[in-house]
Amino acid sequence: MKAVVIHAARDLRVEDRPARAPGEGEVEVAIKAGGICGSDLHYYTNGGFGAIRVVDPMVLGHEVAGEVRALGPGVSGLSVGDRMAVNPSLPCRECAFCLRGQPNHCLDMRFYGSAMRRPHVDGAFCESLVAKASQCVVVPAGMPFGHAAFAEPLAVVLNGVQKAGPLVGRRVHVAGCGPIGALAVLVARAAGAAEIVATDMVEGALTIVRQVGADRALNIVEEPDAMTAYAANKGHFDVMFEASGNGAALRTGLDVVRPGGTIVQLGLGGDVTVPQNVIVAKELTIRGTFRFHDEFAVAAQMIAQGKLDIAPLLTETLPVERAEEAFTLATDRNRAMKVQLAFG
Q1: CA–CA separation, 153 vs 138, rounded Å?
Q2: How far, in Å, CA of 72 to CA of 99, rounded?
Q3: pLDDT confidence of residue 166
Q4: By CB count within 10 A, which of 21, 76, 143, 163 is most buried?
Q5: How many domains does the chain contain in total?
């Protein structure tokens, strides 16, 4: 089978890898679509992020969908030919966090396409993937594979949105309009937000969030003072979703979120210094959010039921043989929101 393998920064190869038959409780999935995520791009452009580095060749990818090719012994409730979104998380279900109902913090998590442990955990950018049956979420037969592959990033957003509390009638600020920020706009609009103001530095991304529900989409490079008015009278917004991982965006959020408001940190970045006096004086709540669990199945269902129009977010789909071209396109935020690979 073909697989997309990262060897080092800018050393991406489409290689032949041996496929294997599914074992007890496992399913062989013929992968059809895979979305290139920000973490995949970090491995491609930098060889990793922070202290996490690619040491050995590793198959990339964790936003995938496909169809059942074969069932291992003991698998029930699935049939050959079923379409599915594949959950890339495989918690141990035995550690303290799993038993406490926090499997996203599993102490022995195996997450597709991750160099956090060694041997690295290979990802799902391959023509044939063997997964646990519990990772497979069946979607309707007519659902495009490319849409089903959005279940993973949408699950990330749903986990974060839950931490913000009810959004009905709330004023929401989304900072950073990559795929996660754009999905946050979509979810906030569907959840009944009264006003959504998004910010980014790239006009291409802002154009898309205007299409999917932002009332205003502001380019903070062209309009560096665009958010100043929202800081008047101790702040305007009830909730902020910080999806850029940029310290300056978070600092602006502290000014424009009203007293008692909530900031949900969706984006990953480096160390950030925040003014504690502002957090204390405005009684702000800052919530972290990490991956997902139950939200994955909910995300797949929402997409299948047409509750969110994710089509504007899919920029282009390229065959796996053109993986390097796809990754190069995905790094250009002026031209691309979400780029996917097609397999098989």
Answers
A1: 17
A2: 27
A3: 96
A4: 143
A5: 2
Percent of the chain at pLDDT > 90 equals: 94
User: Any idea what the CATH number is for the domain that residue 312 is in?
Assistant: 3.90.180.10
Domain that holds residue 19: 2-153+292-342
| 77/149 same-domain check | yes
147 shares its domain with 12: yes
| pLDDT value at 269 more than 90 | no
Entry pTM: 0.95
- For the residues 287-312, what does the mean pLDDT come to? 94
**pLDDT for residue 107:** 95
pLDDT at 149 over 80: yes
Whether residue 199 contacts residue 227, with contact meaning beta carbons closer than 8 Å, is answered with yes
What CA–CA distance (Å, rounded) separates 141 from 128? Answer: 19
CATH number of the domain bearing residue 224: 3.40.50.720
Residues 165, 239: Cα–Cα separation, whole Å:
9
